Amino acid sequence: MNNEALKELLYKMADDLLILGHRNSEWTGLGPLLEEDIAFSSMAQDKIGQSYALYQMLQTIGEQEPDTAAFTRTANQFHNCQLVELPNGEYDFSLIRHFLFDTADALRWQMLAQSAYEPLAQLARKIRGELRYHTLHANTWIQQLGTATDESISRLQTSLAYALPFALGIFEESPYENDVISSGIFGGEQELKIKWIKKIDEIISQTQLQLPPIPTLSPVYGGRIGKHTGHLQPLLNEMSEVFRIDPSAEW
Amino acid sequence: MYGGGNTFEGIKTDSLASEDPVQMAAFEARIARGEKIEPTDWMPQLYRKQLIRMIEQHAHSEIIGALPEGTWITRAPGFKRKMALMAKVQDEVGHAQLLYSAAETLGKPREQMIDDLINGKSKYSNVFNYPTFTWADCCFISWLVDAGAIVNQLANAKGSYGPYCRALDRICAEESFHLKYGHHCVIYLASGTQNQRDLFQEALNRWWPPMMHFFGPSDKISAHTEILMRWKVKMGTNDDMRNQFLDMYVPKIWELGFTIPDPLLKKNPETGTWEYTEPDWEEFKRVINGDGPCNKERLQVRRIAEERGRWVREALKAPQDKYVMPLA
Ligand SMILES: [Fe+2]
Ligand SMILES: [Fe+2]
Ligand SMILES: [Fe+2]
Q: How far apart are CA B15 and CA B153, in angstroms?
């Protein structure tokens, strides 16, 4: 098994989940209704919990301990896709991002349940319930708001058009793509992307939203190799503000 | 989270004159026997009004209380703190949801309560009008403001209105986790570096006066207090609550080696009650009436959240049959 390939996979997943969990948590106290405050907080807790588990896994293969990995790296050392670092914006964007990302995430973990890397397969089975809740939540809301009022439909449509190229950045291939596939760690980004398009099309087609033809879009790549928007570093500065007062201290 | 020192509306005693004396006697007898009053039971108008006001204030305190701590979720140092604080603040929002439902059983819809919060008609706990400058301020709230809330809530859980008591039982169970989390955070600051100890000492200096205000001014024993206590709406005097809090937590704060910024604070060995410098009640009044360091900001945040969320709430009301079949 190629250790570098495994690390690359684990880092990009952990970083995606940490950053999106962080963004989701920013809805606490500000949601459009109390029930959504609570839902976004639940998802934030799950995501950050999952990222923690992945950083712990990385530690077992020689990487830094989770707090150091999460709270001391700079933006160019993060491997998350750019989709997750974008600011929350209005609820329509947050919801569309949640739908696009979590659909891919649930499918990814489904594939990983068969991973040849046993700790990953185990984790995939452990968090199955959490992921089911996330996609159920996203699908319910997309179906509701995507068929409700002219305003809700047009807001979702605009956010969908904006978010899709970023969402395609989820599937940016790594230099180790062939290694992870041939070693049975993960079925690869291409396979995931095909499943994802099928799934989001299935949900979107039950609404009044239009899914633009995917091949006409240009994916936003770069996140997986440490190239980010201007939004990531300020997020990390905020996240590590207290931790950096004294990284050797116990908080 | 919840601040005592409820501001009860002035009672015009003649408002009771219109109530049926037989029903009233039966109502008071039930309360005296320790029975709970349920939403469909007969109750005096005044009881309904005061309860709505109290439960509503409590609910508002939970959502406004989510703001000063909520801003530290994105800055919590390390995974464990981050996850625990998220869960804690989420609980507080859940408390608001439970409490709004309890108040709704008395006939006031949630939307109207939230409108009254935003337009300044109803109050929330004064303590949340103060800023959280540092991580230690956030720890102070999680430990000690929640501790104060528990003192109030445990007392109120023994009150007479069934739906409120049941909501409080659930809330108190969660609050005890908050207290443990908050205490744990403060222990780490206390046993950490000099810098960490200083951070908490400074937070304690800032937060002590609002904490003393938290339980409200001394109640004058009036017809007011008397009737609310007889109806088990108000379960103890503000001074009783404050004294209970001091009794439980001052020793714990001292044990961690911190100094409480009140040279007069001590327990009177004869009376068993705490003596302290009289809090500045002028400041309390000024802040509760809107002129505190964060009142405007807190309501502004709430107002913006409501406005930005309006289209979502409207879309939820829209009937689902709007879908137009494409022409064949
Ligand atoms: Fe609490
Ligand atoms: Fe609470
Ligand atoms: Fe609280």
A: 28
